[in-house]
């Protein structure tokens, strides 16, 4: 069982007494909390690996030096953390990081875009700022080849989604929500 959001809020409030910059720019969510947090890229508290597909342009012969791999085109996070996580955060240049890392704490699932509940940036920034950044992320994501975009979407069991993520109700072209009138994009 994962710890409560309250547990993380208290922990992050001590570690991050001042609000930090978070913004989305050209396909990358720049999150100033990451370098001192490293929760998402450190050893995971879940036995199920978190898959992160790589774009064809990110694949190379020595991926196993950068990541633990589930498949030749899929990096993963599990109880070992990430091979590229160093004391100051990620050691990889931005263009070599999985799209999942470049978007985090926005998470691209099969049903749309979500926020990871316990990220310090999510807990400390207003939801309306996240909605703006999420719309920018969707605008960038739809510039990817449709087959790449669909491949990048992660499947997570519905119970885990409800427990760990905030549904931003932002569907993507491959999402079943695009034809579901109950889940139209958030207006604002």
Can you offer a commentary on this structure?
The chain has 188 residues and is an alpha+beta fold. 31% of the residues lie in helices and 21% in strands. The chain contains eight helices and ten strands. The strands form four sheets. Strands 3-5-4 form a three-stranded antiparallel β-sheet. A hairpin with a 2-residue loop joins strand 6 and strand 7. The chain is globular and about 40 Å long. The chain starts with a helix and ends in an 18-residue tail after the last strand. 27% of the residues are buried.
Summarize the structure.
The protein has 188 residues and is α+β, with helices and mostly antiparallel strands. The chain is built from eight helices and ten strands.
Keywords, separated by commas or semicolons:
188 residues, disordered C terminus, 3-stranded antiparallel sheet, globular, alpha+beta, 8 helices
């Amino acid at each position: 069982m994962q710890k409560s959001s309250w547990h993380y809020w208290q922990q992050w409030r001590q570690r991050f007494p001042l609000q930090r910059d978070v913004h989305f720019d050209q396909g990358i969510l720049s999150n100033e909390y990451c370098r001192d947090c490293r929760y998402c890229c450190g050893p995971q508290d879940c036995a199920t690996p978190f898959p992160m597909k790589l774009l064809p342009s990110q694949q190379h012969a020595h991926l196993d030096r950068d990541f633990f791999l589930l498949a030749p085109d899929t990096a993963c996070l599990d109880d070992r953390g990430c091979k590229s996580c160093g004391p100051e955060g990620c050691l990889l240049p931005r263009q070599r990081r999985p799209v999942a890392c470049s978007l985090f704490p926005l998470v691209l699932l099969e049903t749309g875009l979500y926020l990871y509940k316990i990220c310090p940036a999510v807990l400390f920034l207003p939801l309306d700022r996240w909605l703006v950044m999420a719309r920018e992320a969707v605008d960038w994501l739809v510039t990817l080849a449709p087959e790449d975009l669909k491949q990048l979407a992660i499947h997570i069991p519905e119970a885990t989604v409800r427990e760990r993520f905030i549904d931003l109700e932002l569907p993507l072209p491959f999402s079943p929500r695009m034809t579901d009138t109950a889940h139209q994009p958030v207006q604002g």
